């Protein structure tokens, strides 16, 4: 079943296919998701569309005779002077009837107001706390982000798993799913990403992350446990990169100073070349300081290759918060592609570093 239709289709199976003629006097017109009640003008317009044509069947909850979908059609039938209206029965509880009423009014007929849709979302979150934000959003016509904010504002019941729009049950936290993926990969390292993903209930991207940790002989731990370790690792890596960048800057400065001393004053050396890179300022952000120094170097700013290098270095120098935001905002269906491109980019940077190291060695040792 296609994503986004599973929950809707499951509800609609409670609506019978048989159409019956129901006396209007026996119908209950209460419990509508519209806080302002019916729109008299809309009902009058329906009544005047075609006085001889039958109105589409309404949906009525069996046992209560409460109208779930079609209150304006009932009002239109009364304006026409009719005593009965065609209807299909819904077999389900009040919570299911309310969800169907909201979804029906969102998909067709007179749309619900924003306030009514938010009110409906709050009630659905209370009655169906296990539904995911996307599942609720697909019913009430709001964004998943808005539903998530409503869930936090009103303290909806917290559940360990949630039901998605496709009807599949997924854990709210990836911790248990990551651990299951780790156990599967330890038993069978040759398992494909999609096989482990289906068995562990996590995305292929999460399986890839766990596999990379195991390949590097790192323990697959949950993000909450890993946060401190990750920060410490990033700090060590940052210090190492800063040390390498300082050494590189020092070598470049020494090389230019030697060239300046060897040049005769009569040769009128290029003043841009004599300037050299800007001095490295003190501070913890060595990567940013080195990038600013390179940006101020005219020999890079005033040629196409230099500007290209500065632009890609700016992307590579993003901080940890920016990386985490990019990872968190990335849609699930893009994770695999972006991960492979990032790996390829990392290999390209390693090759560039190797080539630069060869050039540095050749410059230091001309023999």
Layout of helices and strands, plus pairs?
Blueprint lengths: L5 H7 L7 E4 L16 H10 L8 E4 L5 E3 L1 H10 L3 E7 L3 H14 L6 H14 L5 H8 L3 H10 L7 E3 L5 E3 L3 H13 L5 H8 L3 H12 L7 H40 L8 H5 L10 H10 L2 H4 L2 H13 L3 H10 L5 H30 L3
Parallel strand pairs: 2-4
Antiparallel strand pairs: 1-4, 2-3, 5-6
Helix pairs in contact: 2-3, 4-5, 5-6, 6-7, 8-9, 8-10, 9-10
Short description:
Helix content is 59%, strand content 7%. It has 367 residues and is of the alpha+beta class.
Explain how this protein is built.
- The chain is an alpha+beta fold and 367 residues long.
- It is 59% helix and 7% strand.
- The strands form two sheets. It has a four-stranded mixed sheet with strand order 1-4-2-3. A two-stranded antiparallel sheet has the order 5-6.
- The longest helix has 40 residues.
- The radius of gyration is 33 Å and the shape is elongated.
